[in-house]
């Protein structure tokens, strides 16, 4: 049987109370209460004989109490808010037994603790002398402590107290005192430790149905008392949602709240106990016991597994059954000697404690014969390809799984690798990667079915094979106007070639292309290792000369920059001299030059003439046939150019606008003396150039 545990502690607690006079809570004995007012009920102060208290209108969350005096004396009470300065106000009416004829309040307190600078504690005591205080911070109490004078009461009288939450939140605790006696509450007996078991049919899960009324007799300690059971403290206090009939626990530890009521008065008492379900003896199913075998049947004895199921099995009476239903009613017990087959079977083992101290429970034991995986290739050869030509690879061993499984389902069969046989035997230091070289290395392998746990073992020889080496190639140009394809070529002698343009085969070390782009070849050697090489084919064409920038008039130190455009790779030559990669030529003499721009990929040569303007620093007009005239060579290439010559005093000596032999050193047919002469050169759309030269005789 499944057992339940009960711990009972007598208390006097109320969580939420009636909030009008008619349903007032009766205070009995020296009662301690925990209250959380909520809402207002019938407004008694609208009745003609119930004037509203002059200290407060009590429209806030409130609760009413009824005090019946059994013995003459003095009555006091203390109210302590949960929140230190919550403002609880109260009023006392009586003596009266009629909620429609309460009369004026005989005690009334509405002091604000925060405004008065005091704690929130309030009530009646035998020290205070005033009968009213408040509202707000006003107080007639010299002690300024929030208490009013105690009541002098006579046996048989009835009084009512209303308490309202004016400011703040939270509940309060309340205790009564003084020499006056109130009717005694019903008493509740504490219960000893009681154990019950979950006797319900399947499943035996620690959840059961309990008849709580079986504890009535044990709980009731005084005559004229009845008890009720509730799932919450609040329900017990306001007598709502009583547990009627069987109670089903929600967990292995529930709290049940008890309400004890006197049948000869309105006094009640409250208690709670813990209802605990023993969850140690819950039914369960073991993991399937697999018998790894190449046979179709294996024998077993269920008793050999008792210690693993229940270490204290010797303290139980153990029986065996084919089904859980048979186990529940002890029908058709079976012999623990069983035969496992390749079909999943399961039997039920029932544990019963003869002493009754522990609950019975049932264990389902499944078992089956399972064929182990097979290491078909032993020893296997695990080949890897080098990745960077250094004869070393931190090899990912999972790459060998498919070869080792040899067609067996990889989703249910795991492969584990070990460096030594001892590691494999002890299943330690499993490897996922391993550093290998071209020297074969032996690894020790386990294939394990991850459902049945069955295994087989073997070895694998891991070896690193070289990958093909291809020499990197510089980009190659192809002429945009080419009429014949371009041949791309890599090293010969490998087992297979596969080009990205579709060419492939054992002899396809060459391919032909007619367009630019990146072309990749994958080369495979005799070990199945591969290497990729990408050859870039760039478009090329004859150059277009955009402009030629000259820096003249430097007395032979002239420069020219050839600006071209095009997709080709170009080199430059001037006046038939050797080609160069630079497009700048220096130290050029005046006059006309010829530049050749050649595409390095053979896509054509572009030729163009250009002029470098410069002049001689002197001339000797002595009719000997050498330097007899002065001119700027090449200006004939610039139509509209004006060349003007002056003497040192600025006198115009010569000007011409068309090509000619130049100035002969005369003015009005008279020879000019040896001296320095100045010139201006005006070329259209360019800045005016000024300079000087010498005439020597």
Any overview of this molecule?
Strand 50 and strand 51 form a beta hairpin. The protein is mainly beta and 697 residues long. It has seven domains: 99 residues, no CATH class; 149 residues, Jelly Rolls; 87 residues, Sandwich (Immunoglobulin-like), CATH 2.60.40; 86 residues, no CATH class; 65 residues; 69 residues, Sandwich (Immunoglobulin-like), CATH 2.60.40; 80 residues, Immunoglobulin-like (Sandwich). Strands 2-4-12-6-7-9 form a six-stranded mixed sheet. Strands 3, 5, 8, 10, 11 and 13 form a six-stranded mixed sheet that branches. Strands 19, 20, 22, 24 and 25 form a five-stranded mixed sheet that branches. It comes from Nonlabens spongiae. InterPro entries: T9SS_type_B. This is T9SS type B sorting domain-containing protein.
Provide keyphrases for this structure.
697 residues; mainly beta; Jelly Rolls; Immunoglobulin-like; 7 domains; six-stranded mixed β-sheet; 7 helices; T9SS_type_B; T9SS type B sorting domain-containing protein
Structural topology:
Blueprint: E1 4-11, E2 25-27, E3 32-35, E4 61-68, E5 73-81, E6 87-93, E7 107-111, H1 113-116, E8 122-125, E9 132-136, E10 147-149, E11 151-153, E12 158-167, E13 172-177, E14 209-210, H2 216-219, E15 225-230, H3 233-238, E16 247-248, E17 253-262, E18 268-277, E19 284-285, E20 289-292, E21 297-301, H4 306-309, E22 317-321, H5 324-328, E23 337-341, E24 345-352, E25 361-370, E26 380-385, E27 393-396, H6 401-405, E28 413-418, H7 421-426, E29 433-436, E30 441-449, E31 455-465, E32 476-479, E33 486-489, E34 496-499, E35 504-505, E36 510-513, E37 517-524, E38 530-540, E39 544-551, E40 558-565, E41 570-574, E42 584-588, E43 591-599, E44 605-612, E45 614-615, E46 618-619, E47 632-633, E48 642-646, E49 652-656, E50 666-667, E51 670-671, E52 675-682, E53 689-695
Parallel strand pairs: 2-4, 7-9, 8-10, 19-25, 20-25, 26-31, 32-38, 46-53
Antiparallel strand pairs: 1-18, 3-13, 4-12, 5-8, 5-11, 5-13, 6-7, 6-12, 14-16, 15-17, 17-18, 21-23, 22-24, 24-25, 27-29, 28-30, 30-31, 33-36, 34-35, 34-37, 37-38, 39-40, 40-42, 41-43, 43-44, 45-47, 48-49, 48-52, 50-51, 52-53
Protein name: T9SS type B sorting domain-containing protein
InterPro entries: T9SS_type_B
Pfam family, one: CHU_C
